[in-house]
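TL;DR need structure tokens for one chain.
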Amino acid sequence: MTAKFVSVEDDAGKVTRYSRHDNGGGLIAPGAVVADSARIGPMTYVEHGAQVGPGCRIGHGSWIDRDATIGSRTVIGDGVRIGRGTVIGNRVNIGSHTRIGSSVLIEHGVHLDADSAIPDGTEVLARARTAAVPATHRPHRKAKGGLAA
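>> reply
TL;DR here they are.
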């Protein structure tokens, strides 16, 4: 059986007592508002002041920072980081391993591809399928046969 509450200590020594969401087992900080119909994946953190709308699905290992707002029926992949004070509209689809900065506005119906990076203070408009800056990755090393690994 999984514990209903989990205490987590940050690097500064502050302990926060998170509750587990009934649908998915994600960790919800005191002061966060998450709809009962939302699915919050395991090891996903929803911080104080954040709001998650009804019908949302948030994957494993994501992090929703303080005061972020996520509209209804939004799908967020695994390992996504949503910055402080970001507002995400309804029916948005965010691919896995995407990084969204602080104070970002994402309009209703936007689709962001996996591994996208959205800088602080950006507005992502609905008419763009993906308005993301590609994440910086280590270039693939070529194998001896000349093919990328």
